[in-house]
Amino acid sequence: MKKLIVGNWKEHFNPGTASAYYHKLNKLVEKASNVTVVLCPPTLDIYALSHELDGAKYKLGAQNLYYENEGPYTGETSAAMLKGMVDYSIIGHSERRHKFGEDNLMIAKKVGAALRNNIKPILCVGETLMDRDEELTSRVIVDQLTVGLHFVAKADLDDMVIAYEPVWAIGTGDFARPDDVAKVAKLIHNTVQELFGDESPEVPILYGGSVEPDNAKAFLDVGYIDGLLVGGASVNAEKFARIIASAST
Ligand code: PGA
Q: What percent of the chain shows pLDDT beyond 70?
């Protein structure tokens, strides 16, 4: 399977600085073979970048979207509005879950809306430190998947991506051990097979949480891991270019 490297820029860059950053990154990135690179800028930057980006090297993704096409939803941007401008959207990132109160049902609706609008959802799942300490990791992941994939049909699985991001590893420098990632990635794989039946299409699984150029390869070598979701290091052009290179064959 082609590796998938996703850069989540979070709340960094306005349209001007996003464009400058993109050009800086593009100078450093060779045409990567066997890698799909997805850039997820803030919503405000998407329109301009969609005209600027070298589509042969990069895909665009949103960091979030709303499931109602239009209406009285102050501050929201719908999947229908993003349609045609982005190929992917991160959905249910732990910062959306924990800082903005998104629950599994809302996330499920967003996944459904993305699919209806030809946007590939990157559904994020992951346990908090407290979940981990209480040995609830498996239960939390299975719950997040079972509800999060509720509006997904088997035929949609070709367009799904799942990212495993332990909440305690995000932005902390405290990345997960590859053998723990291997266990959760296998659990995700098995849960998808259980929910949709054996012989379901393989859904790419990403690891995210303090990915850096020095540890990227170790995660890419983990079984059932097909790529990376990168936050902090994706807004540093040198680092992100090195991470892309480590996934390229
Ligand atoms: P990080 O963020 O790489 O800065 O830990 C990952 C993410 O939030 O997707």
A: 100
pLDDT digits (tens, 9 = 90+) for 39-52: 999 999 999 999 99
Q: What is the mean pLDDT of residues 48-76?
A: 97
232 CA: nearest ligand 1 atom: 4
The structure's pTM equals: 0.97
Long-range contacts at 138-147 (CB < 8 A, ≥ 24 apart): 138/184, 138/187, 141/184, 141/187, 141/188, 141/191, 142/187, 142/191, 143/104, 144/92, 144/104, 144/107, 145/188, 145/191, 145/192, 145/195, 146/191, 146/195, 147/104, 147/105, 147/107, 147/108
The pLDDT score that the predictor gives to residue 199 is 87
What is the sign, positive or negative, of the torsion defined by CA atoms of 135, 107, 225, 220? negative
Residue of the nearest CA to atom 7 in ligand 1? 231
Domains annotated on the chain, with CATH: 3-248 (3.20.20.70)
Number of neighbours of residue 138 by Cβ within 10 angstroms: 14
- Pair 21, 237: CB distance under 8 Å: yes
Distance of alpha carbon 234 from alpha carbon 48, whole angstroms: 19
Protein residue whose Cα sits closest to atom 6 of ligand 1: 231
**Do residues 217 and 2 make contact, with C-beta atoms less than 8 angstroms apart?**
no
Q: Quote the pLDDT of residue 223.
A: 95
Cα–Cα distance measured from residue 12 to residue 14, given in angstroms and rounded to the nearest whole number: 7
> Which residues does a 6 A CB cutoff place in the pocket of ligand 1?
8, 165, 170-171, 208-211, 229-233
Q: How far apart are CA 46 and CA 59, in angstroms?
A: 11
- Tell me the catalytic residues: 93, 165
